[in-house]
């Protein structure tokens, strides 16, 4: 069975996209075994320079660039040769908020699969928001031509209704809930360990430096205030990057530089440049409390049983965590700095309760993912 993955990546500098890809590949291998089929997986990969963090004889990686997308021997040939194309949309890129260029590329790849007659699976992801007429029309056309559509929260299911999707979507959760990690070694005493994921993109004000995501507060000032407050509580503060871009045009997204600068200014610990999503999750699992603006950094904490207060810049946060009954997300597009700090202080004080809630909510998330597993297995058996 030949499966082609689009808008996944085995070596993305964004470890959240990587977490989804590692989890998807593990699931496909498991389902192929259950279906009694051998599998060959092709990932149309991003051109980030890090080493792939997943491998195997059943895996083939192809770097995607403009020439590949346009060539008859490139994208078209790959989706035509596949038995199944799966698109996870980078988790949340099937929306207007990241700009026209990324969305156009996504539509191009989706419609290549449609035109080739290869079944397209929309893997669990956030859908929307779509605010433009042309993007709404193309999204509706693609969704209604897809063999299987799965979303990771109720808000995305409502977005499907608004777009005019005629099918029955699978209501699942985020695949990265299953990302493997190494549990931390037992600790005997010592200070409380607090992790802050600092978004380099938000520190820069977005891609254009003009508060692109509509934050209702001064994000750099909030981070400095939070670091100082946690230090004042006697905590051991760790600044944790989750998008690590050493160089190139997307360096504005880099968290590591922001973490290193803040760590030097505030005399706190800067986590290392992780080589893989599982390495990042294993580090986060050793903390006692966590907050961050990268959703998959928060998912890593949540799914490792760490108390977490997600700091949202889009509706994807509340949609995902709220769907699982974990209602501790604070929306930085509407809340001011005092409100955010109050939420962090409250979460820190009640971290044992939050950790227990995270474990219960995780079980609900795993149960919801079973619906995607079953639907995908049935589709694979029918091919």
UniProtKB/TrEMBL annotation:
Gene Ontology MF: a single term: transferase activity
Keywords for this protein: Transferase
Positions of the Polysaccharide pyruvyl transferase domain: 63-314
Pfam family membership, one: PS_pyruv_trans
PANTHER family listed in its UniProt record: COLANIC ACID BIOSYNTHESIS PROTEIN WCAK (PTHR36836)
Name of this chain's protein: Polysaccharide pyruvyl transferase
Source species of the chain: Thioclava nitratireducens
